[in-house]
TrEMBL record:
Taxonomic lineage: Bacteria, Bacillati, Bacillota, Bacilli, Bacillales
Matching InterPro entries: PRC_barrel-like_sf
This protein's name: PRC-barrel domain-containing protein
Amino acid sequence: MKGDCLGFILAQKRFLHHHHALLRACDISSILDDRILASVSSEQLLPLPKTCFTYEQMKMKLVKSQEGDILGMLEDVYFCLDRGIIVAYELSDGFFSDLAGSKRQIQRADSLVEVRKDEIVLNG
């Protein structure tokens, strides 16, 4: 499994149902403070791939090494939009550790091994 950033998920809210679409990273022309500019129309947006995970699905999941050691909980994900890859994962040991400022980062784009129902496995 690769740690790629495919783009942004857009929520299209309609009268009776909500639909999500993918705005690919390669279609984004610039990111401003209050908006994202893209070179596609709403008809050209793609459906979400079945194999992708959103940040909300991964946030606060337990993160383990391949050996089973607990590394922390996923707090944030950093990505390089130009290259379309995840560059770092920010991990937390919990609320009280966060107050003490002890969050840490794993800064390897190739470290994601597997996303399971209740946990994320990283290489390293």
